[in-house]
Specification:
It is a single chain. With 208 residues, the protein is an alpha/beta fold. 36% of the residues lie in helices and 20% in strands. It is built from 6 helices and 7 strands; from the N terminus they run βαβββαββαβααα. The chain has helices spanning 22-33, 68-78, 112-121, 142-146, 152-175, 177-188; strands spanning 2-7, 39-41, 44-51, 54-61, 86-92, 100-103, 127-132. A hairpin with a 2-residue loop joins β3 and β4 (54-61).
C-alpha cells in the first residue's frame, strides 16, 4: 500500500520555523527519524520511506500556499495513490496551541491551502490532521502571527506535539483513518483555550 502524506507550508528560509509551516515540520521529523532525505522534484520536495510494509510518499509543496492543490493532484496521479490514502497536515488557528485533530473530511476552515486542494481535487473527502497554533494575536495582526516564528518555549512544546503527529501519520497508514482517530484524537486534544470555528479573518494571501 502506498500513501501520500502532504505537509503544507511555505518554502524559503524566511518561513522556516514559522507557525504556518507546521506541516513541513511534521514531515521533517518523520523523515529525520527514518534517515530519509527530501529531494527537489516537480511541485515540491519529496521523499519516500517505508513503515510496517507501507510506502509513504512525503510531500512538501514548493508552490505558494494558495496553489497547494497543484502539487497534491500531480503526486496523487504520478504515484497512482487513491484519494483514501491521502493525508494533509495543516496549521489551525481555531484550535488551542498544540491540539491535534484527525478528520476524515471537512471544510477548508478558512485555510487557503486546503481551499485550493478542495478546488483542484473537486472534493473535501480526504483525511487531514489539523494542528492548533493558537490565536494569541490582536485584531488585524493575524498574518503577522501565522507567518511569525515560534518563541523558544513554544518551539520546545511543539516538538513534543510534532512527535505525536508523526505517530498519527504512521497509524494512518497502518490501521486507517477511523481507528487512528479513536486511538489518538483524545491524546491530541489540548484543553484550557477556547476553540473557534470561525474562518480566518485576514485578507487572502498567497502565503496563507
Amino acid at each position: 500500500m502506498k500513501y501520500l502524506i502532504v505537509g503544507l507550508g511555505n518554502i524559503g528560509e524566511e518561513y522556516k520555523d514559522t507557525r504556518h509551516n507546521i506541516g513541513f515540520m511534521v514531515l521533517d521529523a518523520f523523515a529525520n527519524a527514518s534517515n530519509a532525505i527530501f529531494t527537489d522534484r516537480r511541485y515540491g520536495y519529496v521523499c519516500g520511506l517505508k513503515y510496517k510494509g507501507r510506502t509513504f510518499v512525503l510531500l512538501k509543496p514548493s508552490t505558494y500556499m494558495n496553489l497547494s492543490g497543484n502539487a497534491v493532484n500531480y503526486w496523487l496521479k504520478k504515484e497512482k495513490i487513491p484519494l483514501e490514502n491521502l493525508l494533509v497536515i495543516v496549521d489551525d488557528i481555531a484550535l488551542p496551541l498544540g491540539s491535534i485533530r484527525l478528520r476524515s473530511k471537512g471544510s477548508n476552515g478558512g485555510h487557503n491551502g486546503l481551499a485550493h486542494i478542495n478546488t483542484i481535487l473537486g472534493t473535501t473527502e480526504y483525511a487531514r490532521i489539523r494542528i492548533g497554533i493558537g490565536n494569541s494575536f490582536r485584531k488585524g495582526r493575524q498574518v503577522n502571527y501565522v507567518l511569525g516564528k515560534w518563541n523558544s518555549e513554544e518551539k520546545k512544546f511543539m516538538e513534543e506535539r510534532i512527535a505525536l503527529a508523526v505517530e498519527m501519520v504512521k497509524s494512518f497508514g497502518a490501521i486507517g483513518t477511523e481507528l487512528t482517530m479513536t486511538a489518538f484524537n483524545k491524546a491530541g486534544r489540548i484543553t484550557g483555550q477556547g476553540e473557534r470555528e470561525s474562518p480566518r479573518d485576514a485578507s487572502p494571501s498567497k502565503h496563507l
